[in-house]
Design goal:
The chain has about 425 residues and is an all-beta fold. It contains no helices and 38 strands. The N and C termini lie far apart (about 85 Å).
């Protein structure tokens, strides 16, 4: 008979610890490693948990214990293991949507507008953010010609295209308020409800918002931009190099009042209750980075430089107590009272910018990267994609809950914020 610490197995006394299918090859009480079935292994060399390792799925023990799969050479992938050996699997948030692992896991599901949240989920012109599609843009108006500025008033959008047009924001037929030419169209537009004000290459004009005859309020050389408050128009005279000016004019017309002279190619005007802001683009034609962001009181006085060393601003607006503007690759802001310049976002091919009280909207992209309408908080943070576009954004305006924008040639669109 076997001792109390042994058992009889196949006619042989063996320690109790070695009972079952195990054997104690050392003649002692420690069981040998189990005999593992194909595809599994005792890689931790502990008989207590048996053949714990799946050699067909463990990249640290792939087909054999301690056979570590190397990092894949393709993008956005982690090492993986299959029955045939080492392979690759997509990192979390990425997918191989083109079924071609030679280019890795090419789709970033949180932002890929053709594979938004999952492969094949096309946002059809809307942006993709956090794996959810933004509503796509809707065309409001389109015609041949060069586009200019946009303004929203009540139920209508006013925009420059071969003159000045008006179109219902809910959709419908456009009205030509004034016909123009490719050289004489509404480059910038402001509307106060009853009147539309707009700049052409050589004039500042008004026209009844519902249609009628246009009135030339002032002759202005290279009238680039116009903004309006309750009683007054503020506009830029963008003469070459150091001959530009900032002026104001009563909405009823008369003689303009000069607020600033000797400005270096001014463009992109904005205002708040007390001040007018604009960008000096710099020396034409090279624009070597000698531009500036400027401020002057609406009542006049000495202009203040808020930021110097700027290169060819692409847009300017006021938001959250700051002036925001864009160069071709960076969006900046500076407090309206002056202070340090901060970077809000970087991008490529920035073409236009505007803002509401809290958010900055801008167009960016190239023919290589694709074109986008994008947004970033005026306080900073991540950039989101609103729309994916076939052409670059030429102008942007913001209404209640809606963004209005134009392509670079002949189309006005809207999209929800």
């Amino acid at each position: 008979a076997c001792s109390p610490t042994d058992t009889c197995q196949a006619g042989v006394c063996v320690p109790l610890a070695c009972a079952g299918s195990q054997t104690c090859g050392d003649g002692g009480t420690t069981p040998d490693a189990p005999a593992c079935p194909s595809g599994s292994g005792d890689c931790n060399q502990s008989a207590s948990d048996g053949c714990e390792t799946d050699l067909t799925a463990d990249p640290m023990n792939c087909t054999a214990c301690a056979n570590v799969c190397p990092a894949p050479s393709v993008a956005n992938a982690d090492p993986a293991c299959a029955a045939a050996g080492c392979t690759a699997t997509c990192k979390a948030g990425f997918a191989d949507c083109d079924s071609n692992m030679s280019n890795g896991c090419e789709a970033e599901l949180a932002r890929d507008y053709e594979n938004c949240g999952k492969c094949g989920n096309d946002c059809k012109g809307g942006g993709c953010n956090a794996g959810a599609c933004h509503a796509p843009p809707v065309v409001l108006d389109s015609a041949d010609g060069y586009t200019g500025g946009i303004a929203i008033s009540g139920s209508y959008a006013y925009w420059g295209l071969m003159g000045l047009r008006r179109v219902p924001v809910a959709g419908g037929a456009a009205t030509v308020l004034e016909a123009g030419t490719n050289g004489n169209f509404a480059r910038s537009v402001a509307v106060d409800g009853s009147q539309a004000f707009y700049s052409t290459l050589s004039t500042l004009r008004s026209i009844p918002a519902g249609g009628g005859s246009a009135t030339v309020l002032a002759s202005v050389f290279a009238c680039m931009n116009v903004a309006a408050d309750a009683s007054t128009l503020y506009f830029l005279e963008g003469a070459n190099n150091n001959n530009g000016a900032v002026r104001k004019l009563a909405k009823t017309g008369g003689t303009p009042t000069t607020l600033a002279t000797s400005q270096l190619n001014p463009a992109h005007i904005a205002m708040d209750g007390a001040n007018v802001y604009w960008a000096n683009r710099g020396t034409y034609p090279a624009y070597p980075g000698d531009g500036a962001i400027m401020r002057v009181s609406k009542s006049g006085g000495t202009p203040t430089t808020l930021a110097s060393g700027q290169k060819y601003a692409r847009g300017l607006a006021v938001a959250s107590g700051a002036v925001v503007w864009a160069t071709s690759d960076t969006i900046f802001k500076v407090p309206i009272g002056g202070g340090s310049t901060q970077t809000l976002a970087t991008d490529v091919g920035i073409s236009a910018l505007t803002a509401d009280g809290t958010t900055v909207y801008f167009g960016s992209g190239t023919s290589t990267t694709g074109h986008r309408l994008r947004a970033v908080s005026a306080s900073g943070g991540p950039v989101s994609d609103i729309a994916v576009l076939p052409q670059y954004v030429a102008a942007i305006a913001v209404g209640s809950g809606t963004i209005y924008f134009t392509y670079n040639t002949d189309t006005l669109l809207k999209v929800p914020k």
